[in-house]
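Q: What residues go here?
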């Protein structure tokens, strides 16, 4: 099975905020003018369950490492989830979307405010455990997960049969 992880090295070091809004009944409730998602609601109970599993693994790891648990944010998850959807739609895996925006810009466009914002990504594995283990095996990703200054996190999973990787994972971290 193809599994690939990407390192996200963009850190936003300025307070950000911004627009957002839209119809809360639209699963992609914040969108680019071309219809691509910026923030997205979960598309299934299964997606919510695997996102929750992955976030629990991260918090358990952080507690054991003495870093403390992060606050799980639905708004941060919506931004992470939208990026997973966007990667699937366009068959790419990386931090910058086809519109040229990285994680901090997308979060700001969705109306989040923060001091720093970053993410970890994976594509190709259907297993949250495998994705988490892969992230911990890469020192820079492990360090990102263990960063003591994060305050919030959110996870996004999207399954898109027929796309290159099929399974797409994003976890975003935020410091307020």
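A:
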């Amino acid at each position: 099975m193809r599994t690939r992880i990407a390192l996200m090295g963009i850190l936003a070091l300025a307070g950000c905020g911004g627009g957002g809004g839209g119809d809360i009944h639209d699963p992609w409730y914040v969108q680019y003018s071309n219809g691509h998602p910026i923030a997205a609601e979960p598309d299934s109970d299964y997606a919510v369950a695997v996102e929750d599993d992955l976030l629990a693994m991260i918090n358990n790891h952080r507690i054991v490492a003495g870093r403390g648990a992060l606050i799980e944010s639905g708004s941060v998850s919506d931004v992470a989830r939208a990026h997973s959807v966007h990667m699937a739609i366009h068959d790419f895996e990386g931090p910058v979307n086809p519109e040229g925006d990285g994680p901090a810009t997308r979060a700001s466009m969705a109306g989040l405010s923060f001091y720093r914002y970053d993410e970890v990504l994976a594509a190709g594995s259907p297993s949250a455990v495998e994705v988490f283990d892969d992230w911990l095996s890469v020192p820079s990703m492990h360090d990102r997960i263990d960063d003591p200054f994060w305050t919030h996190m959110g996870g996004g999973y999207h399954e898109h049969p027929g796309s290159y990787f099929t399974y797409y994972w994003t976890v975003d971290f935020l410091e307020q």
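A: Context that may help when evaluating the design: Strands lie at 4-6, 30-31, 37-39, 71-72, 116-123, 152-159, 167-175. The radius of gyration is 15 Å.
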